[in-house]
Design goal:
coproporphyrinogen oxidase activity; 9-stranded mixed sheet; Elp3/MiaA/NifB-like_rSAM; 3-stranded antiparallel sheet; cytoplasm; pyruvate-formate lyase- activating enzyme; single chain; globular; alpha/beta; metal-binding; metal ion binding; 464 residues; Arc Repressor Mutant, subunit A
Length: 464
């Protein structure tokens, strides 16, 4: 397993770093899928989605994702599909439609499909009342058999989390939790409209420990308005006292043309590309000194955590929730905007809640778009996933796995020459490996194998 690069290894000398950022710091996908969601289109609708559901094997486990698109507050940095809600009726009404959607899914699935993972995302799933949470698990269990020891994960907002909610979720098997923290500096919190104290986060962690949730993740961000490297380090120093098993360190993506509420952030307050890079590198070094293992591009875990073990054993995967140990080939999404993944391709529900509700009320799967995956997509997806997870890939073996010779990648290998010359990668004629200095730019290396990529400010976030 490769050690995380030190800040000095990726950022010095300054003139070289600036040159690399100018060449490879542009807009590229995060590669949580391939093809990416930017390539989804109307070719996948309710009929094809239903056909794929009918072909799911009852002998292999699936993963289930339920999207809860509600929050108690509007965080200006947020890129998720969510809205602020103050009415419990809205939550109960949403679950009623979710139940109807699940029934449509059940009609098409073979009998006896079982799930070994359930992820509650949002939004803020902990806005659900205890009764609503019970109803949600009743919906899932009516359609799927949850395997013994199935991983149950939830994304949580510490500001609205309660001990009672944690205990209710634990009753249903909550085993992993992700708490949104972002930054604990008051001036940064004010700049993104997300105020919460360290004490609130600490209480949330304590409640999760009480019910023996085995893996707690804290989401942090760099590149936020008014944020400095000192702010990032100060936040790390506080949260490390809680000893979370995992830390996710995401770069803020400022896309106000896609998320109108981000217009509330003054772009002049955003750190520049070089400062973003420094914040990321300094945080990675800080976490390494604290004993955390670097996981791919932006995750860190204690050595005993399942994510770190999977990294050591070459079993790390990447999906719409980021880095994961989940090896399921089928993901079934429920709720507005949720994405399902099958061997045949991707199917995404209508993104707006009203459209999603209308389609379900019409008695059809609320599929709005998706992508049929070709054999070439699977080939390239394998290469991209291994680069994103392992920082290395055996290109010759990947070609052999898909019945083709290495000559099929001649064009891509040619495009790698500049990357190799800049010291970001090495290639021995078979194995491509991203160097320590190149790891912050791994998305740009992976993009070499993306045949659909058309770099666009309006579609993707900066590479670092």
């Amino acid at each position: 397993m490769l050690a995380p690069p030190r800040a000095s290894e990726v950022s010095a000398p300054a003139d070289v770093t600036g040159l690399l950022l100018s060449r490879y710091g542009g807009q590229v996908p995060r590669y949580t899928s391939y093809p990416t969601a930017a390539q989804f289109g109307p070719e996948v609708g309710a009929d094809l989605h239903g056909e794929w559901l009918s072909q799911v094997s009852p002998h292999k486990p699936v993963s289930v994702y339920a999207h809860i698109p509600f929050c108690a507050r509007l965080c200006w940095f947020c890129g998720c599909n969510t809205r602020v809600v103050n009415s419990k009726y809205s939550l109960a009404g949403y679950l009623a439609v979710l139940r109807a959607e699940a029934a449509l899914v059940e009609q098409r699935l073979p009998a006896g499909v079982w799930a070994n993972a359930l992820h509650l995302g949002g939004g803020t799933p902990n806005l659900l009342s205890r009764d609503d949470l019970n109803a949600l698990f009743d919906i899932v269990r009516h359609v799927f058999k949850l395997a013994p020891g199935a991983e149950v994960a939830a994304e949580l907002d510490p500001a609205s989390l309660t001990r009672e909610w944690v205990r209710a979720a634990a009753f249903h098997g909550l085993s992993r939790a992700s708490l949104g923290v972002q930054d604990l500096s008051p001036h940064v919190q004010a700049a993104v409209n997300r105020r919460e104290s360290f004490e609130v986060v600490a209480s949330s962690v304590a409640w999760l420990r009480e019910v023996q949730v085995r893996s707690i993740n804290l989401d942090l961000m760099y590149g936020l308005p008014c944020q400095t490297s000192a702010d990032v380090v100060a936040t790390l120093d506080q949260v490390l006292r809680l000893q979370p098993e995992r830390i996710a360190l995401f770069g803020y993506a400022h896309v106000p043309w896609m998320k109108a509420h981000q217009k509330l952030i003054d772009a002049k307050d955003l750190p520049g590309l070089s400062e973003r890079f420094d914040q990321s590198a300094i945080a990675a070094e800080h976490l390494a000194r604290a004993g955390y293992v670097a996981i791919g591009l932006d995750h860190f875990a204690l050595p005993h955590d399942e994510l770190a073990v999977a990294t050591r054993e070459g079993r790390l995967h990447r999906n719409f929730q980021g880095y994961t140990t989940d090896a399921c080939k089928t993901l079934i999404g429920l709720g507005a905007s949720s994405i399902s993944s099958f061997a045949q391709g991707y199917a995404q529900n209508a993104s707006t809640e009203l459209d999603w509700r209308r389609r379900v009320a019409d008695g059809v799967l609320p599929t709005a778009r998706g992508r049929v995956v070709t054999e070439d997509d699977r080939f390239r997806g394998q290469i991209i996933e291994r680069l994103m997870c392992d920082f290395a890939v055996d290109l010759e073996q990947a070609c052999a796995d898909h019945g083709r010779g290495l000559d099929r990648l001649a064009e891509e290998i040619g495009r790698l020459e500049a990357i190799i010359a800049d010291g970001l990668a090495e290639f021995d004629g078979r194995r491509l490996a991203v160097t320590r200095r190149g790891r912050p730019f791994v998305r740009s290396v992976a993009a070499v194998f993306d045949r659909y990529l058309q770099p666009s400010v309006a579609r993707h976030a900066p590479a670092v």
